[in-house]
Amino acid sequence: MTGPASAPEHRTGRCRCGDIRYEVSGTPDDPHLCSCEHCTHLAGGPAMAWVGFRRDELTWTGPGGQPAWYATWPTLSRGFCPRCGTPLVSVADDSEMVMVTTYSLDDRTGVDPVGHSYREIAAPWMTVTLAPDPVHG
């Protein structure tokens, strides 16, 4: 696994149809899987893969502008492409960070998950063993 220190400082990402595109700079932070109820429903799978970047380092660059937003908690919104439905970002109102869906990045070097949030409610057949998430166990 390549660590964040050797990862590119500038990355691009996009939804499946390419209408919503973004650029993000900086060091990737907290790459992890999440199996919370919100992530599993939005992903239609057992987990979503996330990686954080500073919120002020993300720029929307595609023809569709910003994604559509959906509040999954009173203070947490998820951004997705209104055209193809690709989940792209999660951001808390009071956070300086934005979580980007790992697989929306064009280059995923150095962002392999190192933790698993809500592992205790994950699908029992998941066999990936990662360190517990310090916040959610």
Describe the secondary-structure layout:
Blueprint: E1 10-14, E2 21-25, E3 29-34, H1 37-43, E4 48-54, E5 58-60, E6 68-73, E7 76-80, E8 87-92, E9 97-101, E10 115-117, E11 131-132
Task: Characterise the protein shown here.
With 137 residues, this protein is mainly beta. The protein is 5% helix and 39% strand. It has one helix at residues 37-43, and strands at residues 10-14, 21-25, 29-34, 48-54, 58-60, 68-73, 76-80, 87-92, 97-101, 115-117, 131-132. The strands form 2 sheets. Strands 6-7-8-9-4-3-10-11 form an 8-stranded mixed beta sheet. It has a 3-stranded antiparallel beta sheet with strand order 1-2-5, with no helix packed on it. Strand 7 (76-80) and strand 8 form a beta hairpin. The longest helix is centred in the N-terminal third of the chain and has 7 residues, at 37-43.
Please sum up the structure shown.
With 137 residues, this protein is mainly β. The chain has one helix at residues 37-43, and strands spanning 10-14, 21-25, 29-34, 48-54, 58-60, 68-73, 76-80, 87-92, 97-101, 115-117, 131-132.
